[in-house]
Design goal:
The protein is an alpha/beta fold and about 290 residues long. The chain is built from 13 helices and ten strands.
C-alpha cells in the first residue's frame, strides 16, 4: 500500500472514481471530513458501498477512519462499516492498551452481526504525545493491530511545533518506525496538507521511505503518483535483491553463512531485506510470481 487516499464518507459521488483510481488503498473518512449532522447518512452510505460487489471485487486495501472512541459516534460507526468488503478500521486517538482491546471487541461483535468471515484489522493513529510514548504498547496490544499511522498535524499543532520542522518530523517518524518494528507491524506515514507543495510532499515521502515506512497518506488525487513512485522499489534495488537471493541459495548449498554480492557482505539482516523487496516487487507485478 504505497499510497492511501482519503475519501470523505459524505461524498458518495467520489467513491466509484476512487475505486477505479491509482491509489493502492482508500481510507473512507467518517471523522474530521464529515460534519456532525451528516455522520449518520455517511455511515449508512459507506455500509452499503462496503456490502456491494465493487468493494468486494476491488484489489485495493479498503479502510474506514471511524470517529474516536470517546465520541458518541464510535459504536454506530463500527456496527455499520465492519462489512465483508472492509480490510482495516483506522482508529483515531487511541491512548491506552484498553482502548485498543475495546475497539477489537467492538469489531468482533460487528463481524458476528454482519456475517464477516475475514477478520478486520486495526490501523492505529499515533497523534498525541501519550500515544507516541506508548506506541509499542498500542501496537502490541492485540494481534488485530496491523500497523501504526503517524498523525503529525494532531501531534504537532497543539504543542506549537512547526509542521515543517524537519528535526521533529524525523524524530517522530523514527519513534513510530521503531515501535512498529518491535511489535512486528507496519508503519504508515502522515498526510501532507499543502496540496500545492509537490516538492514538500515528495521530500517527506522520501524521508518516510528511507525510514522503512510502508507508504504515505494522500488527501488529494494529485499526490498519489508521487507516493506510488517513491514507495516503489527501484529497478536497481530489485536486481540486487534477486542477486542476493540467488547467492543465498548457492551459499546454503555450500554451507556458507555469509557471502559477498556486488562487493557487499551479506548476512541474515540483509537477506531478510532482499526477501522483502522481492516479495513487494512480485505483489506489484515487477517480477513474475
Amino acid at each position: 500500500m504505497r499510497s492511501k487516499l482519503f475519501v470523505p464518507g459524505s461524498r458518495p459521488e467520489l467513491f466509484d472514481k476512487a475505486l477505479a483510481g491509482p491509489a493502492d488503498g482508500l481510507s473512507f473518512d467518517l471523522e474530521d471530513s464529515v460534519t456532525a449532522d451528516r455522520k449518520a447518512q455517511a455511515r449508512a452510505t459507506l455500509r452499503e458501498m462496503l456490502r456491494g460487489e465493487q468493494a468486494r471485487a476491488s484489489a485495493k486495501t479498503l479502510i474506514v477512519r471511524v470517529n474516536a472512541m470517546d465520541t458518541p459516534y464510535f459504536a454506530a460507526d463500527i456496527a455499520a462499516v465492519v462489512q465483508p468488503g472492509l480490510h482495516l478500521v483506522n482508529l483515531p486517538k487511541p491512548e491506552s492498551v484498553d482502548d485498543v482491546r475495546s475497539a477489537v471487541a467492538a469489531i468482533e461483535l460487528a463481524e458476528q452481526d454482519n456475517g464477516v468471515t475475514e477478520p478486520v484489522r486495526l490501523l492505529l493513529n499515533i497523534e498525541s504525545p501519550r500515544a507516541l510514548r506508548l506506541a509499542y504498547e498500542l501496537a502490541s496490544a492485540h494481534p488485530r493491530v496491523a500497523g501504526l499511522q503517524l498523525g503529525l498535524g494532531d501531534l504537532f499543532e497543539p504543542l506549537g511545533i512547526a509542521r515543517r520542522e524537519n528535526a521533529a518530523i524525523q524524530q517522530a517518524m523514527f519513534a513510530v518506525r521503531m515501535a512498529a518494528g518491535e511489535a512486528g507491524v507496519f508503519a504508515y506515514d502522515a498526510a501532507y496538507a499543502n496540496i500545492k507543495d509537490d516538492a514538500g510532499f515528495r521530500a517527506e515521502a522520501e524521508l518516510a521511505q528511507r525510514l522503512g515506512f510502508l507508504g504515505k497518506s494522500c488527501i488529494h488525487p494529485s499526490q498519489i503518483a508521487a507516493a506510488n513512485e517513491v514507495f516503489r522499489p527501484s529497478d536497481a534495488e530489485i536486481a540486487h535483491a534477486v542477486k542476493v537471493l540467488e547467492a543465498a541459495r548457492e551459499a546454503d548449498a555450500k554451507g556458507v553463512g555469509a557471502y559477498v554480492v556486488d562487493g557487499k557482505m551479506i548476512d541474515p539482516p540483509f537477506f531478510a531485506r532482499a526477501q522483502a523487496i522481492v516479495a513487494t516487487a512480485k505483489r506489484m507485478g515487477l517480477l513474475p510470481a
